[in-house]
Amino acid sequence: MSGVTVLLQSSPSAWPAPTGAQSERVNESTDLKVVAVQVGPILERHIASGYMPGAVALIGRGEHAEVVEIGRMAKENAPHMRRDSIFRIASMTKPVTAVATMMLIEKGRLRLDEPIERWLPELGHRRVLKRLDGPLDDTVPAKRPITIEDLLTFRCGLGIIWPAADSYPILRQIAALNLIGFGPPEPAYALAPDEWLKRLGTLPLMAQPGERWLYNTGSYILGALLARASGRSLPDLLRIGIFEPLGMNDTGFFVPERARNRLVSAYRLEAGVAELYDAPATSLWNAAPAFPDGGAGLVSTVDDYFAFAHLLSARGRAGGRRLLSEASIAALTTDHLTVSQRVGGASILGSGRGWGYGLSVIAARTEEGFAPGSYGWNGGLGTSWMADPASGLNAILLTQTGFTSPVAPTVHQEFLRAVLAPAFL
Q1: Which long-range contacts (CB under 8 A, 24 or more apart) does 34-40 make?
Q2: For each of the chain's 425 residues, which pLDDT tens digit applies?
Q3: CA gap 402, 379 in Å, rounded
Q4: In Å, how far from its chain's centre is CA 166?
Q5: Closest Cα partner for 268 from 409, 86, 95, 85?
Q6: Are the C-beta atoms of 405 and 350 separated by less than 8 Å?
Q7: Which of 92, 267, 269, 353 has the least CB density, counted as fewest CB within 10 Å?
Q8: CA dihedral angle for residue 150, residue 154, residue 159, residue 161, rounded to 10 degrees
Q9: 3-state class (DSSP) for residue 318
Q10: C-alpha to C-alpha distance for 366 and 351, rounded to whole angstroms
Q11: Whole-angstrom Cα distance, residue 310 to residue 137?
């Protein structure tokens, strides 16, 4: 692998010598090392092509993990990639917000079937467009209120329309009102959640609650609702309920000054070339946001996100404690969509995929070979995660180059296949 630095690192739990009960753990660690070695050339090839300057990949099973660090933190004369490099994980935020919601439900603060207007009166008494491309005043009453579960499953009646049609009056109004939640993350967004909700409440719904899968906006609404229901800001709620118990010390809505030397540069493809989008020194993620974005706002590291992924794989237990019930984990990782909703969402979800709570669930074996019941999600700024409950594997890839469409770039597809479906390579 000339010209590219590749480091393979084991999680500390994989180091003990093979004595007694430890032998099985070491064999498992050896298996993960084999996969990690196979992943290196895949990542190197995409670095050599100029697609990305570097990446951090993790292959985990149980508490064991192998990490591949490859390339550099930026194209511009940057240090080598580090295991603890910090990435903008964008929509990989959504599963975290969903877990926080289930925690409040288990504490009795919320119910899945509860109308959200109890906490968000701005979104009560909804009206619904007769046609998605119709005038904003051509509406009918909503058949029922939006519920907490509608937000989790992205069936709340609001979301991204893909491909976008600028001629739709509702999309023009969303732009006129300066509403986030219908496109990429905007960490420098100036409006606070209350003002955002007030403006959002002036829109009709795009579909009846529960009837259509529409991506993204449900997580933004959910983040605002969690803050009101808990009496804490969303950053504090996630920190106390999830990040601190799991040791996710580098995960949050912005990068503190002490850690900015570990924030990677971010790139967007322009005419096939990775162009700088966000530099660490002037990053949009260097300051606490006015609008903590429950859909796409977090930064994290590969080990931090593995701690979160392992919570789901371990059915809600971490560090000898139960943080979430097995029933809640099952609800999070079960596809809740109808066949027609999966078909309607296929342009974003992909073929054979449904949606649980805040994450995608494989409903039928995909052409890539991913097994039914596997779950995870991507971040449009260059990250991906998938878990296979049958094998116990977690696969996480963090890169600096953003997606150009809902379809994951080739490097992510090849990495996930190498880890979770090697027979299909």
Answers
A1: 35/59, 35/66, 35/418, 35/419, 35/422, 36/8, 36/66, 36/67, 36/68, 37/8, 38/418, 38/422, 39/68, 39/415, 39/418, 39/419, 40/1, 40/6, 40/8, 40/68, 40/70
A2: 334 556 667 654 332 333 343 334 335 566 899 999 999 999 999 999 999 999 999 999 999 999 999 999 999 788 999 999 999 999 999 999 999 999 999 999 999 999 999 999 999 999 999 999 999 999 999 999 999 999 999 999 999 998 777 789 999 999 999 999 999 999 999 999 999 999 999 999 999 999 999 999 999 999 999 999 999 999 999 999 999 999 999 999 999 999 999 999 999 999 888 999 999 999 999 999 999 999 999 999 999 999 999 999 999 999 999 999 999 999 999 999 999 999 999 999 998 999 999 999 999 888 888 999 999 999 999 999 999 999 999 999 999 999 999 999 999 999 999 999 886 54
A3: 8
A4: 26
A5: 409
A6: no
A7: 269
A8: -130
A9: strand
A10: 7
A11: 47
Q: List Cβ<8 Å contacts ≥24 apart for 10-16.
A: 10/64, 10/65, 10/66, 10/67, 11/60, 11/63, 11/64, 11/65, 11/66, 11/67, 11/303, 13/63, 13/64, 14/64, 14/65, 14/66
CA distance 395 to 187: 27
Phi and psi dihedrals of 142, rounded to 5? -65, 140
d(CA 195, CA 54): 39
Tokens read off for 188? 């420098």
According to DSSP, the residues that pair with 87 across neighbouring strands are 300
**94-106 vs 302-313: helix axis angle to the nearest 10?**
40
Could you tell me the pTM of the whole model?
0.93
**Can you read off the two tokens belonging to residue 99?**
């877990």
